[in-house]
Amino acid sequence: MALVGLVRVSTSKQETRRQHNDLDPICVKVFEEKISGNLELIDRPVAQTALDYRRPADLLTVQEADRLGRNLLEGLIVLNDLFQQNFSLKILPGIAAGEHPERSPILDLALTLAEDRRRDIIRKTRDGLASAAGHGRTGGHSRVVDDDKRRAILTSRAAGQSLRETATATGAGVVHGQIKAAAAGVDEPGTGVLRGKGAAR
User: Fold this and answer.
1) Would you put residue 40 in left (φ > 0), alpha (ψ -120 to 50) or beta?
2) 127, containing H or E segment
3) Longest Cα–Cα distance in the chain
4) What is the tens place of the pLDDT at every residue in 88-119?
5) pTM as predicted
6) I need a labelling partner for 100 at 20 to 30 A (CA). Which of 122, 138, 177, 186 fits?
């Protein structure tokens, strides 16, 4: 049995050294991808190459579960997909840490909780959008954010959606103001002026 490493960051500007420091000494080979964790594994060529490189008994190894996806929640979903394809994994620290040649009751619980959380976030986002639509606030890129849309924005971001994905889902051009206000603990319903689509990421 050998360890095959996978390093992932979303953009070329992000640093990979810490992941390499953890994986390089213990893996026979480490693959590095700079791609969004929002993509399915089948759309991530480097990840597919790492999986193809493995021998049957080898473990795909990542620094943390969230390196498999764009955040911990999505990482656990990807982990579940890998198990369904009979891949074995090793995760170094954090949630789901350890060697996983197969699913275990503890890991099943973590995966179940992740799936439930994901469904809950999706439901709340849809409810927020439906509520906004019920008040006649639909279509286009609104420049003023009401309470319903603000809740939908914050729920979408809590789910790990990018700013661009959030803007598309909520019909808002840029959500920086709402995210910044929420982080500061400021309640400013209806005052989130959106200043164009260009800044959404």
Assistant:
1) beta
2) helix 105-134
3) 59
4) 899 998 777 888 877 667 667 766 776 777 67
5) 0.56
6) 122
